[in-house]
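Researcher: Here's the sequence for the chain we discussed earlier.
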Amino acid sequence: MKLTSRARFSTVCLHAGQEPDPATGAIITPIYQTSTYVQDALGQHKGYEYARTQNPTRMALERNLAAIESGKEGFAFASGMAAIGAIATMLKSGDHVVVSDNTYGGTFRLFDKVLRRYQLSFTYVDTSNLDEVERAMTPATRMLFVETPTNPVMRLTDLRAAAELAHRHDARLVVDNTFASPYLQRPIEFGADLVTHSTTKYLNGHSDSVGGIVVAHRDDDIEWLRFVQNAEGAILSPFDSFLVLRGTKTLPIRMQAHNANGLALAQYLSAHPKVQHVHYPGLPSHPHHALAKTQMRGFGGMLAFELGSLEAARRMLNGVKLHALAESLGGVESLISHPASMTHASVPAERRAAIGITDGLVRISAGIEDIDDLTEDLAQALENV
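Model: Thanks. This is the structure I predict for it:
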C-alpha cells in the first residue's frame, strides 16, 4: 500500500501513514494499548521505549494527518485545547499574538484567563479585514492565530494574504482548521506555518472521541513540538487515535454529504420568513462568498442564523426533534446549539455582542441525514417561534 507522490486526497485519507500490521497482516492499524515496551538488551530497542513518548497507533494517526494537511509532521494531543496549548509554548514572555476576534470561546478563555498570566499579550481583530490585522501587528508580534471560517458567524480570512502579512512581520501564521476540515481547505498550501484541529469534530466524525492535532512543516517547529508533546504529556490515547484513523478513512465522502446538507439548510433558512439572517459562506449574500469559492473546496456543514431574541431561539431549540441540542460539531448526526449560552458562554457579553453572537443566534452542524427530514424538523420547530 505504498502511496505515490501523486496520490489524490481521498487515497491519502485512506492509506497515508499506515501499513498492514507486520506481525499479522491486519489491514487496520492495531490499538497498541501498552504503557511500555520490552527492550532487547540494554540500549537496544525497536524504536519504542515508553508510551507517552511513542505509540504506534498514535504515530500512524500523526503521519496520516500530516499527509492529509500537506505538512511534514503531526502531533496528536488529548484535546483540541491541549493542541493549542502546545502551540502557545512556542511563545516567550513579552510576545504578542494577533487573534481572530470571533475565535472559539475555549481558545479565548485559554489566552485571556491563563496565558496572559505569563506576560503574553493578545489583540483580537476581525482577521477577515487584513488592514485591521496590519494595524494590530507590533514589533513584539510573534504569531497570527486565525480561524476561518469563524465560529459561529462564519467570517473568512484570506489565507494566502494572511501568511504573507505574518511573514513580513517575522510572525508565524497558525490556522485553526477545525470548522472547515482539510477536505475543504489545507492552510499550509496557502503559506500557513502551523495547522491545528480539534480531532473531536470532522476528522473523527462520529462524536465518540476527544482529541487534537498540530501539523507543522518547519523543522524548528517540529523539533519543539516533539519535545513539548513528550515533556507535557497531554498525548492522545491509542484508542482515540484508532477512532480518528477510522474517521479519516471516510472524511471525503462524509464531507460531501455535510456540504450538500449545509448548503440546502442555509438556502431553506434564508427563505424562511421567521429567520432574519443566515451566516453561511455558500450563499451569494455572504460577504466572503467569492473568497470561499477560491480557497475552499465547498462551503461546509456549519451555519448560523438569527431569530431576533433569546425567547425565539429558546422556542426553536426546544422544539427540534431530529436535530440534537448539544455542543460540538462535525459528527454524522445533526447538532443544534445556542452559542451565547453554550460554546461561547466564556466570552464576555460585550465581546459577544461586538462580534455578532447575539442571544437570538442559533448554530447548526449539519449531519448526513436525509435533507428532507432535516428541513421538516426545522420547519416544525420554527412553528413555535
